[in-house]
Design brief:
single chain, mainly alpha, Ferritin, 1% strand, globular
């Protein structure tokens, strides 16, 4: 008898130990692809989750209190890699939450976000392996909780979640990754650059998934996507857009020319 997708997603989401979460995500995605999970409980409301499962370390602090070190030093480079790994770990939980929390949606929706969860787990593994090669490990530096904070703010509505997590926070990663790659290349860290090339390629797909479902929810509710996006940015006090935008990556991820013009205008007006 097929297992319930949502129960399995919740088990993954609440898993605290890193290796256990990674193994559970891999098994979840594989079982879904093989048709061993069911959506029969799609109309059952999700349980409230204030915090996802995560290890005791890294210690979470405010974004301003996270250590800032010169990337020219080994410790500074490790701190940067650690911050990227933490983003990917949070992204695993965000993708799992997008599956678990939002119910009674097309099968393609769950296909997309389970694929995202598996790829985020892969990215996290790549970064942690490299961090260990530098003599450090995940949890050796402090980190902040900004991504999950936004998940909590958008937990009530999948349209708002799609607007403000993939289209704002994850899309920001498309903008800043090339500069981070350049910084790491200047330190001679070729492996880190290779990893970020993989992440940038996959993250374009993740943002595209968010854009697809944001447009779907807007169409279903007869909302103008650009006007609604602008309204949500202001209503939820979304993080400020900082040009330059990675225009080619954003267009590949499904942003339209009209949306890019709105982002330019919005960033200039803030």
């Amino acid at each position: 008898m097929p297992e319930d997708l949502f129960r399995r997603a919740l088990t993954c989401l609440l898993a605290r130990e890193v290796d256990a979460k990674l193994a559970l995500v891999s098994a979840l995605e594989a079982d879904w692809r093989q048709g061993r999970l069911t959506l029969e409980n799609s109309r059952t409301p999700p349980e409230p989750i204030s915090e996802p499962g995560r290890p005791d370390k890294p210690v979470l602090v405010s974004a301003r209190a996270v250590e800032q070190r010169k990337v020219s030093t080994l410790e500074g480079r490790a701190a940067l890699i650690h911050s990227l790994a933490h983003i990917e770990f949070n992204a695993i939980n965000l993708a799992l939450d997008a599956v678990y929390r939002f119910r009674d949606l097309p099968k393609d929706y769950y296909d997309g976000w389970l694929k995202v969860a598996a790829e985020e787990a892969y990215h996290f593994t790549l970064l942690c392996d490299h961090l260990r090669a530098l003599g450090f490990d995940y949890g050796d530096f402090t980190a902040h909780n900004g991504l999950w904070d936004m998940a909590m703010k958008t937990a009530h509505d999948p349209l708002v979640r799609m607007a403000l997590v993939p289209r704002v926070l994850e899309a920001r990663g498309l903008d800043v990754t090339p500069a981070i790659m350049h910084k790491l290349a200047s330190c001679g860290d070729k492996r880190a650059v290779e990893i970020l090339e993989i992440i940038l390629r996959d993250e374009i797909g993740h943002v595209r998934t968010g854009n697809r479902w944001y447009a779907w929810f807007c169409a279903r509710r007869a909302l103008d996507p650009i006007a609604t996006f602008r309204q949500l940015l202001r209503e939820y006090n979304a993080p400020q857009f900082r040009p330059p935008f990675h225009r080619n990556a954003r267009l590949a991820a499904g942003f339209s020319e009209a949306e890019m013009a709105m982002l330019e205008d919005f960033s200039a007006s803030e």
